[in-house]
Write a structure and sequence with these properties.
The chain is built from three helices and 47 strands. It is mainly β. The strands form six sheets. It has a 21-stranded parallel beta sheet that branches.
Length: 590
């Protein structure tokens, strides 16, 4: 078939129409900020509730400096979730105490009937300044002074430089049970050595980090070259790769480094990508744990495989590249905390997660950049790791050049709800985002060169928690992403219920040259419409969209494709997907 022909009806499988959605209710209940409240938040989350709203309905929000809304400073549209986080920095915007008004309406309703509330945003009444290049003890004293006088702001020197070498894994600055603190880097740079965990705050509310850069004193990973291999005694001789940090022991011996003893085979032509080995199921089975690494002089090192890994020595050959993994924990850790934010920050060649959080609520990450320092660098860990989250919002973030076996962003176990990943860019990594929970909105993102699925919703890797429900993926671009750029699946054996309410709309999936563009399993109420899909080569599954077992009540329409061979079809790979009538609405553009 030529690429400009309409798809024959016989090639589309079942298309069952979703039941008509109910009408939107007449009003929206505003939850937070409470009317008349005084707040200090940098990026305050606006919470709302509408129990009658359909899952994919939309709300308009306006924030103004006057009650007539003639001077609107921020307005937006919210889908799926019941909160909104502005990219506006209210700490920078407000001098002294400023009153604002806000209102929310359903997209089809009139502003006339919308509830209006006001709040006062006030500057922090207590400020503490950390002098440039402060020692650890001085920084600690200043931080403790700020914590003791909250609400307060800790100000670093404008454009300042700080260097710390924490030797503990719990956090160099480890505090709990306080609220209302802004740590403003003022454009300063913090250089970290040894373990990278600088801050750990537990049980805290409304903590904000902003305006800073973090570097590690050496790149996160280094590379070696295999000189020789001796399978008989499970050893190999390595030399540093030219252009990389030469001290391989620095990466092997990391105080408290739980993942410091791993070497991974690397493809010699595309540094940072895993070479495929026959019979090796996944990236995670390709590592080689080292029992010891010995400096034998002349820039040569002897590596001895750990017990259980001896057979993997034979997988290596002279000239192969190995990557020395050296995770060093996280710069910021937040546990059981609420309404915290990180904004306008960069992490440069960072060896681990910039931040981690667990069982937190109302987290926002605005304008976070994760990038490498030199073209030759690779670095790792995850860009953001979290679990058990409620109300997380990520916007205007860039996660670049992350070469790792883990995802750039993770939603793992727990009661995850209200997750937003909007207007972000991910340009490497195993996955861009994983989600299992209720209410996820991916919008306006650019994903490129992920080795795994860019979006993986409802994943079933044995972690406890709910299936994925109410997931909207719209207006995103996927370029050369994974074997399946969009993968949405739940398993009745693993979850108490199937996933439901998925809409994949108006996305571009380019260079989808491996398995398929989208795959769904265990999903009820699925809509796939308005997407454009492109490939240059063969697709393994011979279809753009694959429906596996337990997919029901779905509509697939209005999608287009451009491909030298015909793939605009829906493939049912399991009889559990019900048969039905055929509707031909997907075509290849003229």
């Amino acid at each position: 078939m030529k690429s400009n022909q309409t798809v024959p009806a016989a090639w589309l499988m079942v298309i069952c129409l979703v039941a008509a959605t109910p009408a939107l209710s007449a009003s929206v209940q505003l939850i937070w900020p409470e009317d008349g409240a005084t707040i200090h938040d940098v990026h305050p989350p606006f919470d709302l509730e509408n129990t009658d709203m359909v899952w994919d309905g939309r709300h308009n929000i306006q924030i103004s400096t006057d009650s007539d809304f003639t001077n609107v400073i921020d307005e937006d549209t919210v889908a799926v979730v019941t909160r909104y986080v502005p990219t506006v920095d209210f700490d920078d915007l407000s001098t002294g105490s400023v009153r604002y008004w806000w209102r929310v309406k359903e997209e089809t309703a009139s502003w006339q009937d919308a509830e209006v509330r006001s709040f006062v945003h006030a500057e922090m009444p207590y400020r503490v300044t950390v002098p440039n290049n402060a020692s650890e003890s001085v920084f600690r004293a200043k931080l403790e002074e700020a914590i003791g006088h909250t609400p307060s702001k800790l100000l670093l020197a404008p454009g300042g430089a700080y260097e710390y070498h924490p030797a503990i894994t719990t956090g160099l600055f480890n505090y709990s049970g306080f609220s209302d603190l802004i740590i403003d880097g003022n454009g300063s740079t913090i250089t970290i050595g040894e373990n990278s965990r600088l801050f750990r705050f537990t049980g805290c509310d409304r903590i904000a980090f902003k305006n800073f850069s973090v570097r590690y004193f050496i790149p996160g990973y280094t590379m070696g070259v295999v000189e020789s291999v001796n399978p008989d005694d499970s050893t190999m001789i390595l030399t540093p790769r030219e252009g990389w940090h030469p001290d391989l022991l620095q990466y092997y011996k990391v105080t408290g480094g739980t993942s410091a003893y791993v070497v991974r085979y690397m493809d010699p032509y595309y540094t940072g990508l895993f070479e495929e080995w026959d019979g090796w199921a996944s990236q995670f089975s390709k590592h080689l744990d080292a029992a010891s690494l010995e400096d034998i002089g002349d820039s040569r090192y002897r590596l001895t495989a750990n017990a259980g890994y001896e057979s993997r020595i034979s997988k290596y050959s002279p000239g192969d590249l190995v990557k020395f993994v050296s995770y060093r924990f996280s710069f910021i850790v937040l546990d059981s905390s609420r309404f915290c934010s990180i904004s306008n920050a960069q992490f440069i060649s960072f060896p681990s997660s910039p931040a981690m959080s667990g069982n937190c609520s109302g987290m926002s990450i605005i304008g976070l950049t994760v990038r490498k320092d030199r073209d030759v660098d690779v670095f790792g860990g995850h860009s953001w790791v979290n679990s058990g989250e409620v109300g997380q919002w990520l916007e205007n973030c860039h996660f670049g050049d992350i070469v790792d076996d883990g995802p750039a962003l993770t939603r793992t176990y727990g009661e995850n709800r209200d997750y937003v990943f909007r207007n972000c860019t991910v340009t490497q990594g195993a996955h861009a985002g994983k989600f299992n929970g209720i209410g996820a909105w991916y919008s306006g993102n650019h994903f490129e060169n992920t080795s795994g699925s860019a979006i993986y919703a409802g994943f079933q890797t044995g972690t406890p928690g709910p299936s994925a429900n109410n997931v909207l993926v719209e207006d995103c671009t996927f370029v050369n992403c994974g074997s399946i750029p969009i993968l949405c699946e739940t398993d009745k054996a693993a979850w108490p219920n199937y996933g439901y309410n998925f809409r994949i709309s108006n996305n571009k999936i380019l260079k989808a040259d491996r398995r398929t563009a989208m795959l769904f399993q265990g999903i009820t109420n699925l809509t796939v419409n308005g997407n454009f899909m492109e490939c240059d080569d063969d697709l393994q599954y011979k279809s753009w969209i694959v429906l596996r077992s337990d997919v029901s009540n779905y509509r697939i329409f209005g999608n287009t494709y451009e491909c030298p061979v015909d793939y605009m079809r829906v493939q049912r790979s399991d009889a559990a997907v019900p048969d039905g009538s055929v509707e031909v609405t997907d075509t290849n553009p003229e």
